[in-house]
## 1
Amino acid sequence: MKKIILPILAILILTACGETKTRQEINRRKAALVEKQATELKKAQAELWKTDSLLQLTNQKFDSLTKEVEAHKQALKATPEELTALTQLRIKRDSIRTQYEALGLKIRYIHKKQKEK
């Protein structure tokens, strides 16, 4: 009986001491997740920077076109083309703003997940 228990006990001790394949896979996946988060964060930050620049330019164009169209409205000389251009620029500005806000939320979410670890 002692001859059977001793080898089984030795095997159990050896397997308990080392990392199992499952644990190794979990650790690899955790490391890959951390790397993926860092990569996605850098990519989102770069895209946010570009989107911010584009949003600022679009806001400037929108403001100047708005002043021009308002002046033409006051003089009763506003054309349908001007009004359409203003509306299309407003749509473009709102679309860029939405993209900007979504990227900001993505960055905040990644930061939150990184702090949880």
Note: Residues 6 and 12 are 10 Å apart (CA to CA).
## 2
Amino acid sequence: MTIEIGDIVNVAIGPMWNSYAVSGFSGDPQRVTLVRKNSSGTYSTIHSDPNRVRHVARPVFKSGDKVLIDGCKAEFMSFEKGGEVARVMLAPRRRQFTGVGFIDIGPAVVRLNYWMLVIENSKRMMEK
């Protein structure tokens, strides 16, 4: 199976296999860029030979699917740019700011890299 942006893959790092999302391709010879979210909330990126990567899953998002973006409820809308960019509608929410109190934030359309959507929602999409 051909690996595409947004696919969930495993790659061997030493004696362990770690899960990543494919975020891109670069170079000659071809290298695959892999990203995963760390427990601290930051992202780790590695580059690997595509032959060392084992395909696990290809998450599928349909218009209207409920998703999370940075912990906020949202709804998947569509893809842009050949599937590398996703559009989602963030639900209305309230945020508390020090010295100001709560502020209501209305719905908003957000554009984000598809691999970021996959990283945050892969477990939820796999359960469907």
Note: Helices lie at 114-127.
## 3
Amino acid sequence: MRLLGFLSSIVAALSFVLPWFRLPWDGQITFLGILREILAGSNGFEGAFWWLNPNTTGTIFLFIAFFAGIFMILIGILFGLLGGRLGPGIGVVGMLVFTLTAWHIYGQGFFGTLAEGYVIALLSFIVGFVAGGGRSL
């Protein structure tokens, strides 16, 4: 059933406008806000990830891993919209990379910052991968 992979990718894309993180010092962060800072940020590459942890600067490897997770989430949605199981599967792996990188920086307090957009995207990718069907893309 390729329709479920398609629908799960649409739900994941719609979650971009919802808050993904709730930070005590700066309010809510949406996925679109993260992308906007990456693509049009005036503070450079490190300035795009200011919200990860304002007290420390992560290594370049953490920034690269985080950016790879974001890229995999976007590719997962694109492939999921084309139908099949691979798109949500890539999205799940991207969410895992995204989560592990942010969890490394925040530690145990990371789960307290998660908001509904993050949870909806993760669950929709998991449902699309498990029940999506399809052989290609």
Note: The longest strand covers residues 19-23.
